[in-house]
Amino acid sequence: MTSAQHHTSPSAPPPGCPAHPSDEAMPLLGPRFQNDDRARLYREMYEQHGPLAPVVLPGDVPCWLVLGYRELHQISSDPVLFSRDSGLWNQWPNIPDDWPLLPMVGKQPSILYTVGERHQRRSALVSEALAAVDQFELRAHAEQFADRLIDELCGRGSADLIAEYAKVLPALVLARLYGFSDKEGHDLVPSINDLVDGGEGALAGRDTVKAAMSTLLASRRTNPAAGVASRMLHHDFADGFSFEEIVEDMMVNIIAGHQPTADWIGNSLRLMLTDDRFAASLSGGRHSVAEAMNEVLWEDTPCQNIAGRWATRDTQIAGRHIAAGDLLMLSFAAANGDPQVRPDRTVFTSGNNAFLSFGHGDHRCPYPAQDIAEGIARTGIEVLVDRLPDVDLAVSPQALVWRPSPFLRGLESLPVRFTPTPTRTAGGLR
Predict the structure, then answer these.
(1) Which of 119-123, 183-187, 319-323 has the lowest mean pLDDT?
(2) Which of 342, 364, 378, 416 is paired with 125 by a 20 to 30 Å CA distance?
(3) Which of 29-38, 95-104, 227-236 has the lowest mean pLDDT?
(4) What is the distance between the alpha carbons of residues 148 and 154, in angstroms, rounded to a whole number?
(5) What are the tens digits of pLDDT across the range 260-303?
(6) Predicted TM-score (pTM) above 0.85
(7) Do the domain assignments include residue 44?
(8) CB 167 within 8 A of CB 414
(9) Closest Cα partner for 409 from 71, 51, 41?
(10) Is the separation of the CB atoms in 8 and 93 below 8 Å?
């Protein structure tokens, strides 16, 4: 990374600093982060290391995993000591150009890696553009697309609710909200999923989505219309931001808005189909849908771990020496289950919204974006259980497989069966 070659590792860091990988440092992309019981893993790590655990990234690159609720709150609340500027990283001299996590930590011209007053202005621009989305209109869009997606599968009596529903609905709704036509939105869905899946098609998917976003924004420069894209371009706060910066922030909006929402839908449906407490939802109950979605944000939050924060100077936290330039990976999932905050994980979390699943501090998910995600996810689940009231798993709960990612928590597939039903809408999505 040429943008950060001038950063060097601190000399002779003290014992315990992650610049010295040890046998006790767990690989963040190792097999234990791919298992089903992620909550037990976080508990065991907390018992062994306390609120901060040493982990290693691919290539034996060290970092800290922040497990503690209070510690994560403290770190994300102090942008002066713990910055979002990845250029501070003391490991850049050890990072090859083809390192697989560069898209996560590499310097980018988006809101994610902007700091200080400029980040505040950028964040205000994004928040106000999203806050103008009418919630009634949002739910109407979500219901319309949900009905169309169910029409494509309802006559078969079986489906994969991840590939055919959860991973499609958020992208379609967001595309319409941002200003794409329905056809453009439908055509973008595979590229958006390729991008967020991080596989062989990720770079091509990003190129396709970026090209479409650039074309949309360019057209809105001279022909303003309804939608988030126009509001981003023509807002007073847009002065001083380049066209490329606005394109990047729109990319962040659609990527960060799509995959976590898709996993929120999938994880909530899994809970409702495997836990007797939520059986009422499958016969039209509304209250249990909200409870299931809330519990997922505590127990199976889509955003598990995120990079991160970088220490601007040597410091200490939770008894650990943190060297200047150390990377701290924030574990929202572990913090939600911190045994110092929730000693009894069996306590039901209905109505308690103190989870950290949307982040915390200046770089947390904007509140309007949270409302949009909740509107899409809840509407999608409610429409599904209304249309397919006897939906049931087509495999045993133990056969369900989580995607092998330590960063996002979601199922590979969710096979279901149900009584075939007639379609409701005229015309399909294409």
Answers:
(1) 119-123
(2) 378
(3) 29-38
(4) 10
(5) 999 999 999 999 999 888 865 566 555 588 889 999 999 999 99
(6) yes
(7) yes
(8) no
(9) 41
(10) yes
Residue 97 Ramachandran class (φ > 0 left, ψ -120 to 50 alpha, else beta): alpha
End-to-end CA distance of the chain: 42
Please say whether the beta carbons of 28 and 304 come within 8 A: no
Compute the distance between CA of residue 277 and CA of residue 286 in angstroms, rounded to an integer: 13
- At residue 301's C-alpha, the angle toward residues 29 and 105, to 5°, is 45
Per-residue confidence band for 429, with pLDDT thresholds at 50, 70 and 90: low
Most confidently predicted of 199-203, 245-249, 323-327: 323-327
205-255: pLDDT as tens digits: 888 989 999 999 999 988 888 889 899 888 776 777 888 888 988 888 888
The Cβ-side half-sphere exposure at 323, using a 13 Å CA radius, reads 21
In the predicted structure, residue 18 carries a pLDDT above the cut 70:
no
Angstrom CA distances, 405 to 152, 306, 330, stand at: 30, 11, 15
Residue 382 lies in a domain: yes
For residue 120, CA distances in Å to 161, 366, 369 come to 38, 11, 16
| pLDDT tens string 105-131 | 877 777 777 778 887 888 888 888 899
Q: If you count them, how many residues does the chain have?
A: 430
How far is CA 425 from each of CA 149, 152, 214, 403, 429, rounded to the nearest angstrom?
10, 10, 32, 33, 10
In the chain, the amino acid numbered 290 is A
| Cα–Cα dist 45/361, whole Å | 25
Residues 86 and 327: their CA atoms lie apart, in Å, by: 8
What residues are paired with 417 via a beta bridge? 158, 392
Q: What is the DSSP letter of 388?
A: -
Q: What is the pLDDT of residue 7?
A: 36
What CATH number should be reported for the domain holding residue 107? 1.10.630.10
- 260 within a domain of the structure (yes/no): yes
**Strand pairing class (392-393; 61-66):** unpaired
CB atoms within 10 A of CB 26: 19
Q: What are phi and psi of 417, to 5 degrees?
A: -130, 160
Backbone angles phi, psi at 317, to 5 degrees: -150, 135
What range defines the domain where residue 106 resides? 2-417
Distance CA(339)–CA(346), nearest Å, equals 12
- Position 236 in a domain: yes
